[in-house]
Amino acid sequence: MQAKVIFILFCLAVVTSYAQSREISGEIVDEKTGKSLAFASVLVAKTEQGTSADENGVFSLKLKDTAKTLKLIVSNIGYESKEVPILNKEHLCISLNRLIEELETVNLIRPKNTKRHRVNSFRLGKQIGIGNFSGGKYPSTVARYYQKPEDFEAHCFINEIKIKFFSIPERQYKTAKFRLRIMAVDSAGKPGKDILFKDLILEKPKTRNSLKVDMSQFYIEVPQQGFFVALEHLFIQENAYKEVHNYRVNDTIYKNVATTKYAPVFKGILEENDEDFNSYYLSVAGWRKMNKLNVAQKFDGEIPAPAFVIKFTD
What we know:
Strands 11, 13, 14, 15, 17, 21 and 22 form a seven-stranded antiparallel sheet that branches. This protein has a four-stranded mixed sheet with strand order 1-10-20-23, with no helix packed on it. A four-stranded antiparallel sheet has the order 4-3-6-7, with no helix packed on it. A hairpin with a 2-residue loop joins strand 21 and strand 22. It is mainly beta. Helix content is about 0%, strand content about 45%. The protein has two domains: about 5-10 and about 105-314, no CATH class; about 20-100, Carboxypeptidase-like, regulatory domain (Immunoglobulin-like, Sandwich). The chain starts with 5 loop residues before the first strand and ends with a strand. Keywords: Signal. This is CarboxypepD_reg-like domain-containing protein. InterPro entries: CarboxyPept-like_regulatory.
């Protein structure tokens, strides 16, 4: 019997009017080569605003606060993050420095491919759709922790990752780009540094709701303390779609309110909110466990979490 799939985007819109706004644009490039940095992340510090650069490293953002003291936090895989004051500028050219010491790290150990291990997180709970946790305000990222399989005493590599997608009418038969990240565990047990140094931009297929990603080419050895698999939405025009809902604010009902969201919607699962729960979302204040979203009451005490099918080899 097919499991019942529940869909939620975790995006309760707040209907607010702004007397003033300000639009800025910019381009993000490599400090040394001047090459455009596709799909870099752009956040407005200390606010819930942000976007993604497009494939040419170009971005535009409508600010809801016109204060000249605002700063942008710009980041990209393999580069140092940078804070950039906006001041009174309307267009910015932002350059980022490469993390050379990390990108040049080479794992000389190669997989033997004599042993296999498969982990299917979708078997752990009821399936659910996971969209923009930010409500479409800034690029959202979710991450799930995986421990090193116990039957690998020595070297263990990530061989394949399967990602599943939730079908929505607004994006039927359309592709959607997103970023896949593999991250180490930091000292607090949260997602830390990227251990997949390639900026891996993937695309949801038009007619299929799953995607198998061959990870063998990256020779990612699983750390003893485990790792996180993370999915990042890209807030680019080709991924955008509209959701229309009715909202109540105090005694006022707002009908047919359109909100811009960004595909794809990933398939995840509902899990028990216990001490073993170890999935995170990236807020403007940093990584937080998904059980901090205060949505347990909607799902009989269970918590939404990303899920994957992962194959390991020796």
